[in-house]
């Protein structure tokens, strides 16, 4: 077995240098690449991608959002974390100097813009976090590892998600962005009550009036600012970030949230087809949040998901004090990745784990692998759920102290 | 929390009291109105379900002149010559015109009794838009609405409650007098609090909280269940005296090393031998079959 294999490889090694001289492969010259601030080509498929503003979310969805695609965020029940993700996305646009387009029917876009989180522009913060982690790790390992001490220098399971190279920025949720910084970006806003006077007379059409006006407005911005590739560019190109808040809610005049069989069921899907067509033919990227827990008909939600490229859903534990599993106590909610786009290839980038949870630390929003402490207690049984939870809770600070602390016997 | 909400409602609040046929929420609504009257607020009531006298009955007599009743009860659909208020007049323009009659720029509270009636005669999306418009207008300090949740589809109730800052759903309690209020409040910063309380509304419309929900108490009690001590009734001795314990601590077990030896074993010293291995081209290393190189 081994012998023919070896000879094969020797032949290959002999031929290699000769082939190398007259190969037709050439290294891609760097000058041909478009360089827009805040973008980079994807590692997987070479698509131009931008960051969502949350580094760990970028990692989960395969590097970032490809330009020309749409990200769907299914809102959590009280729309607090989905709104935060939208603000991160817009803040990243401000920091990178992209143009923004914000549409909302509930709060004025200006209000959303004022709540954008402040960027942490120097790299000190991230290194400080790492240092803190190693410091934390060391004394704990020295104290608790009595019998299995040989493992104490092994690296801990890394729950934080981050790609190797730095892309995107970190933000401090506790502070809002400076007004001067916000002024530097060009922002187009669309506030439904301003655009459409409320009148009860609605003529039946394929798409409801609010969506129609929104689509026209986006199209006008793309044409006017020259984001569509059709027009020749005389100046440097830029990216348009489109953030649409709470699409499909009753405030947009859509009744898919109210009825099982809505009168204009295809309204939102028609709009999304139009939006997709606009995005695909321009240098823009969109984020849509949809209150999916209110949408009565599952089929509509399925269609909406299919029409978006990337789809994630947030499930927050907010307001569920004592009703969630105690094992989730370190996290503020779960993140479900529903769909990852297949862009110019047959397979998509699959995340290595599906169990993802998010937490809002004092300053930043992160997505982590759901990682539970090992269950080592003697009394563990699968039937006794609270018991398991309690033991896990006790185990989490350190293994050694609890093992000695709660024992009845001295052996 | 119910009392907190009743006492202090910050500007722009939108409170919904959800009730069903099992438990009426109008008494609670009236006690909310009474509390606001005592705070010297101006109250406008869009009344569709009960007549003026019935609503005014029992309210604080000193503040009663600050309550303006817009009568939608006698003729809600405009069948007579001069209706006072019809359902179709539920538009932001119309309502702000009616509020303008009493032109005090003080804090004005709008009470809708009930939202169900309006939802029966308008598309739900339009009602949501108009409610949001009313809130945004700035003329109102707060909106208080009664909603009979069992009259509508779940989606409509969900959509309307999605707009609200506080949702109080009332359901019958265990006793005859008690009722349970499930309160969900979300602040502007995004914080959400939920609580379940037993309450009673007395004759003079004061609300008393009987007890916090048992739910939280049960969760507290659960972990403290008594665990039987296996070493309780034994014929031999399993306990250690102090002297014995000291002796036991002193004893060093085999393969338990001192701190120095451990660190010496764990850290690579410069003189120690290490295996350096660099795979070359002919190295066909297969993760799955470690015995690949054995010719068997």
From TrEMBL, chain A:
The keyword S-adenosyl-L-methionine does not apply. Pathway: tRNA modification; 5-methoxycarbonylmethyl-2-thiouridine-tRNA biosynthesis. InterPro entries: Elongator_complex_protein_4, P-loop_NTPase. GO terms for biological process: tRNA wobble uridine modification. Keywords: Cytoplasm, Nucleus, tRNA processing. Signal peptide: none annotated. Belongs to the ELP4 family. PANTHER family: ELONGATOR COMPLEX PROTEIN 4, PAX6 NEIGHBOR PROTEIN PAXNEB. This is Elongator complex protein 4.
UniProtKB/TrEMBL annotation, chain B:
GO terms for biological process: tRNA wobble uridine modification. It comes from the Eukaryota. GO terms for molecular function: tRNA binding. InterPro entries: Elp5, P-loop_NTPase. Belongs to the ELP5 family. The lineage of its organism: Eukaryota, Metazoa, Chordata, Craniata, Vertebrata. Residues 275-296 are annotated as: Disordered. This is Elongator complex protein 5. GO terms for cellular component: cytosol; elongator holoenzyme complex; nucleus. Residues 280-296 have a biased composition (Acidic residues). It is found in: Cytoplasm; Nucleus. The keyword ATP-binding does not apply.
């Amino acid at each position: 077995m081994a012998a023919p294999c070896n000879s094969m490889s020797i032949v290959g090694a002999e031929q290699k240098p000769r082939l190398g001289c007259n190969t037709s492969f050439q290294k891609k010259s760097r000058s041909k690449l478009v360089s827009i601030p805040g973008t980079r080509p994807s590692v997987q498929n070479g698509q131009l991608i931008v960051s969502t503003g949350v580094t760990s979310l970028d990692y989960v969805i395969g590097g970032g959002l490809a330009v020309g695609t749409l990200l769907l965020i299914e809102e959590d029940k009280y729309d607090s974390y989905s709104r935060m993700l939208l603000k991160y996305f817009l803040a990243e646009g401000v920091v990178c100097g992209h143009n923004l387009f914000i549409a909302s029917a509930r709060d004025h876009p200006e209000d959303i813009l004022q709540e954008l989180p402040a960027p942490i522009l120097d790299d000190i913060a991230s290194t400080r976090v790492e240092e803190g982690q190693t410091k934390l790790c060391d004394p704990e390992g020295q104290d608790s590892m009595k019998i299995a001490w040989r493992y104490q220098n092994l690296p801990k399971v890394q729950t934080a998600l981050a790609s190797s190279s730095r892309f995107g920025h970190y933000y401090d949720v506790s502070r809002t962005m400076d007004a001067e910084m916000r002024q530097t970006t060009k922002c187009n806003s669309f506030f439904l009550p301003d655009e459409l006077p409320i009148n009860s007379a609605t003529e039946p059409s394929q798409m409801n009036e609010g969506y129609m006006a929104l689509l026209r407005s986006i199209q006008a911005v793309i044409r006017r600012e020259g984001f569509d590739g059709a027009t020749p560019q005389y100046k440097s190109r830029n990216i348009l970030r489109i953030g649409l808040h709470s699409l499909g809610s009753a405030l947009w005049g859509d009744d898919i949230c109210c009825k099982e069989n809505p009168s204009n069921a295809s309204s939102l899907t028609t709009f999304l087809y139009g939006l997709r067509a606009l995005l695909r033919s321009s240098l823009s990227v969109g984020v849509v949040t949809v209150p999916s827990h209110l949408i009565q008909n599952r089929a509509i939600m399925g269609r909406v998901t299919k029409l978006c490229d990337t789809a994630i859903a947030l499930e927050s534990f907010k307001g569920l004090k004592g009703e969630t599993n105690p094992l989730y106590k370190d996290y503020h909610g779960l993140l479900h990745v529903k769909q990852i786009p297949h862009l110019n290839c047959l397979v998509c980038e699959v995340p290595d784990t599906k169990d993802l949870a998010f937490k809002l630390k004092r300053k930043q929003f992160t997505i982590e692998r759901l990682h539970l402490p090992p269950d080592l207690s003697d009394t563990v049984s699968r039937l006794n759920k609270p018991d398991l939870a309690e033991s896990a809770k006790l185990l989490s600070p350190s293994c050694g102290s609890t093992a000695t602390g709660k024992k009845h016997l001295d052996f | 929390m119910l009392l907190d909400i009743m006492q202090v409602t910050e500007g722009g609040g939108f409170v919904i009291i959800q009730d069903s046929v099992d438990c009426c929420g109008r008494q609670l609504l009236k006690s909310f109105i009474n509390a606001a009257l005592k705070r010297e607020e101006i109250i406008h009531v869009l009344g569709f379900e009960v007549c003026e006298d019935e609503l005014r009955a029992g309210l604080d007599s000193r503040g009663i002149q600050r309550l303006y009743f817009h009568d939608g009860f006698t003729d809600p659909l405009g069948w007579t010559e001069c209706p006072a208020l019809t359902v179709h007049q539920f538009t932001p323009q119309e309502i702000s015109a009616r509020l303008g009659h009493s032109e005090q720029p003080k804090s004005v509270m709008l009470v809708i009794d009930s939202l169900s009636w309006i939802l029966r005669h308008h598309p739900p999306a339009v009602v949501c838009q108009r409610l949001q418009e009313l809130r945004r207008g700035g003329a109102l300090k707060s909106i208080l609405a009664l909603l009979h949740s069992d009259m509508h589809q779940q989606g409509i109730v969900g959509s309307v409650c999605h707009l609200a800052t506080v949702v109080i759903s009332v359901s019958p309690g265990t006793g005859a007098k008690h009722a349970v209020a499930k309160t969900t409040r979300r602040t502007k910063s995004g914080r959400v609090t939920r609580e379940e309380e037993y309450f009673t509304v007395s004759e003079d419309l004061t609300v008393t909280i009987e007890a916090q929900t048992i739910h939280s108490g049960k969760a507290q009690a659960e972990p403290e269940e008594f665990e039987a001590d296996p070493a309780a009734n034994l014929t031999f001795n399993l306990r250690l005296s102090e002297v014995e314990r000291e002796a036991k601590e002193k004893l060093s077990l085999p393969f338990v090393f001192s701190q120095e030896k451990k660190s010496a074993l764990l850290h690579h010293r410069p003189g120690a031998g290490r295996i350096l291995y660099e795979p070359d081209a002919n190295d066909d290393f297969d993760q799955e079959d470690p015995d690949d190189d054995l010719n068997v």
